[in-house]
Design goal:
disordered N terminus, elongated, alpha+beta, 24% strand, 13 strands, 13-stranded mixed beta sheet
């Protein structure tokens, strides 16, 4: 990266100077005056979904829901073809670092981000004992440095030169697009959310690439756990793809009926709710909630939602309810016990490992921002 620091005559970055670029300050993203406009932002949370169709009687009749203990469920054996062996996670770290004046005279933010995705593969231990944890090796890793901008506000020839100049020094320009027809580009908050959306959208694309790597490696049956909803990976989930999503945030109130909420709140560690069938705009899923840890911090503390393709469950798993129990028990066993990790109660140790190993290859954000300022002469 030394050439980036020293080269102040970088072709293409005249776009910044010609459009009056200014630093956004060390705090980056500015607070919103108008709330958060990015309702369609890709997210790991339930609240990003539109209202789905729920069959709450999929496993147990809707009026007979009860807590289901998975403490005594059989453990996976390493020879079990349905044991999850791959773990996928993504990371997006960045902030708005500058803004330029549009031809209309209003400020347009530029976001600088590092994005990446990683897949870890479990290595069988000397003894078939999951209680001793699992050893993980990196199977796939993708990392990129990106600059996001609402490019359609500027002449296209300027944008092409800007993109080429960035690409020559290892950055990739992401073209943000309008999400809604009525969005006013003069709303700086909306523009700021838009470039953040674009960065996360590209991160999810890298996640999909990492999650689908097993197809290219000739092992399409390898069960994979990914952090977040499967709707963000629809093109590889359709059909019988062996992909399992772990959702940590539960803002949606549309999945459960009153009895279901009562059961959810009453869950103890290593207990799950009955499964329901969930039909979204993109996928048909089987999903349930499981409490990985105690609820000392609140009624949903330690709860994750598990989801998988309905076709995978009914065809590959043959609709065996016992698989939900075995998987739920494994998730409880794999939960991280790192008390220094902010979301330890709902995070799997392999996913934490994936995040840590990916982040270790990221340049510190302040360092990268300083290099960008040096490069652009801002």
């Amino acid at each position: 990266m030394a050439d980036i620091v020293n080269d102040l005559t970088f072709d293409g970055l005249e776009f910044l100077r010609e459009n009056g670029a200014k630093r956004a300050g060390e705090y980056g993203d500015q607070p919103s005056f108008f709330g958060t406009p990015s309702e369609t932002e890709p997210s790991n949370a339930d609240d990003a979904l539109s209202t789905p169709h729920c069959d709450r009687g999929y496993e147990i009749p809707e009026g007979s829901w009860k807590r289901i203990s998975v403490r005594e469920a059989p453990q996976f054996a390493w020879t079990d073809p349905l044991m999850p062996l791959r773990f996928v996670d993504g990371k997006d770290v960045g902030r708005v670092v500058a803004y330029v004046a549009s031809p209309g005279g209003f400020p347009v933010p530029i976001r600088l981000s590092q994005i990446g995705a990683i897949a870890l593969r479990a290595v069988p231990p000397a003894h078939n004992d999951l209680n001793n944890g699992i050893t993980l090796r990196v199977e796939v890793r993708h990392i990129d440095k990106v600059v996001s901008l609402m490019a359609d506000l500027f002449p296209w020839d300027e944008i092409e030169r800007f993109a080429a100049g960035l690409r020559a020094r290892g950055f990739r320009l992401l073209i943000s697009r309008r999400i809604g027809q009525d969005d006013d580009p003069r709303n700086f908050t909306w523009l700021q959310e838009n470039v953040r959306y674009r960065s996360r959208e590209e991160m999810f694309r890298l996640e999909r690439r990492a999650a689908s790597a097993y197809h290219r490696k000739g092992d399409p049956s390898l069960v994979t756990i990914t952090d977040g909803r499967l709707d963000d990976k629809e093109e590889i989930v359709r059909g019988e793809a062996p992909l399992i999503g772990i959702v940590k945030s539960h803002a949606s109130t549309s999945y459960l009926h009153p009895e279901g909420w009562d059961v959810l709140y009453a869950l103890r560690p290593a207990e799950r709710t009955p499964a329901l069938a969930l039909t979204t705009e993109k996928l048909e899923l089987v999903t349930w909630y499981v409490r990985l840890a105690d609820s000392a911090g609140g009624p949903l503390d330690g709860v994750v939602r598990v989801e998988m393709s309905q076709a995978f469950f009914e065809s590959t798993v043959s609709g065996e309810v016992a698989y939900m129990d075995r998987l739920s028990r494994a998730l409880c066993m794999w939960r991280t016990h790192d008390s220094g990790y902010g979301r330890a109660k709902v995070t799997l140790h392999p996913i934490q490992q994936a995040e840590d190993r990916l982040g270790a290859h990221f340049i510190p954000t302040d360092t990268l921002v300083s290099r960008f300022y040096k490069l652009s002469g801002l």
